[in-house]
Amino acid sequence: MTNHQKRLSAPDSWPVERKTETFTVKADDGPHGDAGVPLVVLLRDVLGYADSKKEARYALESGNVLINGDEVRDYRRPVGMFDILAFVEREEYYRVFPDEGGRLALTEIDAESAGSKLGKIIGKRQVAGGDTQLNLHDGQNLLVEDASEYGGDDSLVVDNETDEIVAHFPYEEGALVTAVSGQHAGEIGEATTIEVTPGSGENRVEVEGVAGSPDFETVEEYVVVIDENFVEGGLDDDAAEDADDEEVSDDE
Fold first, then answer.
1. Which of 36, 99, 143, 222 has a CA positioned 20 to 30 A from the CA of residue 136?
2. 176-244: what fold?
3. What is the number of alpha carbons within 13 Å of residue 63 lying toward its C-beta?
């Protein structure tokens, strides 16, 4: 198989220029499926910490680049939605978050926030022994004894060191959400109406915009529940009160 990816056919979420070169790096298999961006793209094209793939590989050999708390040396390692990228020596920390148009972008966060990551539940099933396995959007699986409080499309905050669930945000009307795909990607608001569509049609969500985002409507698959820490500068007083009430050159 080829180790290259044509820029023009790269996923829309990849933050790469389309017409400057023919090829970019192809991501390895791993978290986030086809939507995962190779780490080298963030290091080179987004942050400018490397001018070439060779420089990026050299930098990763230092062991000072972490993703979700784990040391990473593979420049093709896929990085995706809500991953935490840490540069130990620089004391810089970023969360991968959708930008306008659905491109992955990096939001700078503090060291404390970098200790955990957000995951959307996309499935749950019983496993041997009676525990329940929660399947998250990035491929991580968590085992819990009692899954009665967790529903599909809920969001969890997971500690990067212990894999323990440290916060739970139910998917429900009144929840603070963001769209991670589609024409409203990157917009944030309160889910005012969740419309369940009979049959095989997509459920739809009506969202009242906050933090400068307009009102919008999108399909349920594109929505992820977040908390006010994901809003740059925090929510304004009225929005915060309402939320409390409802509880991402050449490649050779």
1. 99
2. SH3 type barrels. (2.30.30)
3. 0
Would you state the structure tokens that stand for residue 215, as one six-digit string? 């009102």
Question: Exposed, middle or buried, 155 (CB in 10 Å: 0-12/13-18/19+)?
Answer: buried
Euclidean distance between CA atoms 63 and 186, whole angstroms: 31
**Domain residue limits, the chain:** 4-111, 116-169, 176-244
- The pLDDT value recorded for residue 16 is 53
* Amino acid making up residue 231: V
- As a whole number of angstroms, the distance between CA 111 and CA 100 comes to 26
How far, in Å, CA of 164 to CA of 157, rounded? 8
- In the sheet that 116-126 helps form, which strands lie side by side, from edge to edge? 141-144, 132-136, 116-126, 155-159, 165-169
Burial zone of 124 (CB within 10 Å; 0-12 exposed, 13-18 middle, 19+ buried): middle
User: What confidence score (pLDDT) does residue 41 get?
Assistant: 85
- Strands 23-25 and 65-67, bridge-based pairing: unpaired
Query: What pLDDT was estimated at residue 37?
Result: 85
